[in-house]
Design brief:
This protein is mainly α and about 450 residues long. The chain has a single domain, classed as Amino acid/polyamine transporter I. About 75% of the residues lie in helices and about 0% in strands. The chain is built from 18 helices and no strands. The protein is globular, with a radius of gyration of 21 Å. It binds tryptophan. Tryptophan (TRP) binds next to helix 1, helix 2, helix 10 and helix 14. Tryptophan binds next to helix 1, helix 2, helix 10 and helix 14.
């Protein structure tokens, strides 16, 4: 196949900008909000160890596969899969990867915008100084009051969604790239500043470090292993075509393996550094490391409220979370936006509004799960938000991941593979082994065990 050198949607201006964009997608609520609380609940170091192994052995090969398929196809994941199936002379049914991905994207984006909205609201809450000197009961009550007001939650969700749509509407170069070009370095500096602030003012940096790196196998069981694998998936944005869509805009001529490794290292460092912001604060204030999802919205305001400069640094923390969330949400929108642009005569502005509008509508269900709709539950007790989260993360992403690995490892034409892996001949055999055997089997185990 003669590889197209450009995508019709535009291109990243350099390999570095691709790295910023993909790392921007990967680094998000998953790193700052989800990773620390999961580590807290599953024995700290033991969980971190399993998570690192999953990133290296399952995440990295699939990350490479997604970039490779995207760059070979140069279109939205759905159309790229149709084209790659044709050149590889296999069934066009493989485009199901793209369709399932789009569905997962809608579902994840719908609830992601709700939580990101909370984070944006907390920028103002922290700034207002209302957390200065609060006790745990007050911080919890404040969070409860906030999420039980549907008008507020929906307003913030809507604001976040409008921001996401506006960036996506401006296109790959003027929208996505401009955003990651400024927000990624800002995010990195904020995070380093917060690690230092947290370590210095709490005096418990070493305890945070020990918690993350000293394995406690007592609290680590088989379900922790599965949680670690699922987290590896979610945090690298794998399994729904987001990275494939971004790969379509990656310039040719640079190593995919090296690029993917850089992204994985950046993403992992941000997760570990978030742990190093949060745990010293938690320990210094005698709070619970296994507080669950409330760790970020209840525990941190208490900690910041007790500390010198807490108002400023607490505000900075939620700015960081909001930045990380926006550079992720644009990647959740991109596969479907690119597809609509390819398939219809709607331009990017209308395509982004349409796709974002649908995700917003679906997200209302999650926004209301904490207030008006708290009683709309399935027999197992899941509310709308829990259901979206569960189906997308535990079913659609792993299934998408298996299909991507199997297609890239077993079905993709050798010629296309060679063309994309020209710069990576040395790593080809290892990638192939991991992609053909280890990754699908690993994911299959996650998948089966999570469902049953
Ligand atoms: N990786 C992001 C996070 O950790 C979330 C995300 C963005 C994502 N795009 C995705 C997750 C695609 C799965 C698939 O917050």
């Amino acid at each position: 196949m003669v590889q197209q050198s450009e995508s019709k949607h535009g291109m990243w201006s350099s390999r570095l900008m691709f790295i910023f964009a993909a790392a921007g997608s990967a680094v998000g609520l998953g790193n700052i909000w989800r990773f620390p609380y999961l580590a807290g609940e599953n024995g700290g170091g033991a969980f971190v160890l399993a998570y690192l192994a999953c990133i290296a052995l399952i995440g990295l090969p699939i990350l490479i596969s997604e970039i490779l398929l995207g760059r070979a196809g140069r279109q939205s994941p759905i159309n790229a899969m149709v084209q790659l199936a044709d050149v590889s002379k296999v069934s066009r049914n493989w485009q199901v990867i793209g369709w399932m991905g789009a569905l997962a994207g809608f579902m994840i984006l719908s609830f992601y915008a709700v939580i990101a909205g909370w984070a944006m609201a907390y920028v103002l809450e922290m700034m207002s100084g209302r957390f200065v000197g609060v006790d745990p009961a007050q911080a919890a009550a404040s969070f409860e009051t906030f999420i039980s007001d549907p008008a507020q939650v929906v307003a913030w969700q809507t604001g976040f969604m409008i921001l996401t749509i506006a960036i996506a509407a401006r296109g790959v170069g003027r929208g996505l790239e401009v955003t990651v070009r400024y927000l990624m370095p800002a995010l990195f500096f904020l995070l380093v500043a917060l690690v230092i602030y947290s370590g210095v003012t709490s005096g418990r940096f070493v305890d945070g470090l020990a918690f993350l790196f000293q394995p406690d196998f007592e609290r680590f069981d088989s379900s922790s292993l599965i949680t670690a694998m699922g987290q590896a998936f979610f945090t690298l944005s794998l399994g729904m075509g987001a990275i494939m869509a971004y790969g379509a805009y990656m310039p040719k001529g640079s190593s995919i393996v090296g690029t993917a490794a850089t992204i994985a290292v950046l993403d992992t460092s941000v997760a570990l550094m978030s742990g190093l912001v949060i745990f010293p604060l938690v320990f210094a204030n005698g709070l619970e490391s296994s507080a669950g999802p409330g760790l970020m919205f209840i525990t941190l305001p208490i900690a910041f409220g007790q500390m010198t400069g807490g108002q400023v640094f607490g505000t900075a923390f939620f700015v960081l979370v909001s930045f990380a969330a926006i550079t992720s949400s644009i990647s959740l929108l991109e596969p479907a936006v690119a597809w609509v642009v390819e398939k219809t005569s709607l331009g990017r502005v209308k395509a982004a509004s349409l796709v974002g509008g649908v995700a917003w509508l679906l997200g209302l269900g999650s926004a209301l799960s904490f207030n008006l709709g708290a009683d709309w539950t399935l027999p197992n007790g899941f509310n709308f938000f829990d259901t979206m989260d569960y189906v997308s993360n535990n079913i659609l992403l792993p299934l998408g991941g298996i299909l991507i690995a199997v297609f890239a490892g077993w079905r993709l034409s050798g010629e296309t593979l060679q063309e994309q892996m020209q710069e990576d001949q040395g790593a080809l055999i290892l990638w192939r082994f991991l992609t053909r055997y280890l990754a699908p089997v690993g994911v299959l185990i996650v998948f089966i065990v999570t469902i049953f």
